[in-house]
Amino acid sequence: MSDVERVAPARQLRGSLRVPGDKSTSHRALMISALAKGQSTITGLSPGEDVAATSVMLEHLGVTRVDEDGRVLVSGPDEGLRPSSLDLDCANSGTTMRLMSGVVSTIPGKHHLVGDESLSKRPMDRVATPLGLMGATVLGHGNSLTPPLTVESPAQLRALSYHVPVASAQVKSAVLFAGLAADGETSVKEDVRTRTTTEDMLQAAGVALTSRSVGEGREITVRPGRPLRHDWFVPGDPSQAAFFAVLGAIHRDATLEVLSLDASPERVGFVGVLQRMGADVRLVERGAIYALHARSSSLEATEVHAHEIPSVDEVPVLAVAAAAAFGVSAFRAMGELRHKESDRFAGSMVLAQNLGCRVWSEGDDFFIEGLASASNFLDFTSASTLDHRMVMASAVAGCAGRGCTIEGASTVSSSYPHFFRDLALLQ
Ligand code: S3P
Question: 150, 227, 307, 401: which is deepest, by most CB within 10 A?
């Protein structure tokens, strides 16, 4: 793919599509299979480069992977994972670096984790602190411990009771993975309910794990033990479906359907936000999985709070919806956006501004005065961000509005290599 992509406005959008397998589930399916003894299978693994980075890293640690008949066969070594003297390359993937910090903490020895230019700016102190309390030494640069990271893992990790200070499924998961090799029960408390992918999948693999509500949040307790082999099915990624939900809602002549999605409550908060804005967007149950339907709508401004969409991955594309709405939308408590693949707090504002909106911020809140319709968007050029979600949000705006030129477009490959092809197929 060229690194500069021109997105033309679409006259009409119709059709059904499948988005890639859920990125969060894919990373964990590989990691849990790697920790298990025997061969696991994974159907629907994400084809993105982030998940490929996790896979290659696990192979360096002793895992065997075979791709066969559309499935991935993963065998964890009988004797358990072993350290590697190679640099373990997490590429653009924060999930790989944070979760694998927990996984390598369970392998006595020294591990070097590196990342690309974007990942090398992201804070890793949030995982280093709890893993340090468990007995691993995690070293990085500066106060926030940016990569490259060195993780020195002890012969025996200590059990921990930890209150996660930020809403982060990645930090929760790193501690739970390390807890599998601790000397007693490890528990993690979160004040905001983040995605439960790790808990659900560890339980499915036979790990003794309990989860209970504590106020608005949860406490999860894991007992040490090795997961069992498992046959994993990865549903479609709801965070990728969000791009088509917004596209369908703001384009003037669209009827779109995204098939086969995970629709767990922590992942589909964006649907409620869009519905509140007046969007004709619905989740339709199809057995254990869901389809998402989206049709052209007139949108009104709304107020979005970070706790409605923990992990805030869908905010850049919701900023595009706000730009197409009538009135001023408020995005509240969005500080975490600054620590993603790029500074999405600034990036979401710049995107709306490029479309012609008035934007401003106050502390961790930002505001977008919408243009009442995507037909009023300006044609724009977005600068390279090394951030897949900023690229896709820009493409949605260009496709529904007056077109756009995206620099650094190949970054979509980190989660959705065929994004531009799928977008073209709907036209
Ligand atoms: C993820 C968690 C989120 C999200 C990321 C994937 C995961 O990060 O942004 O894309 O798989 O656990 P935080 O929960 O740490 O914010």
Answer: 401
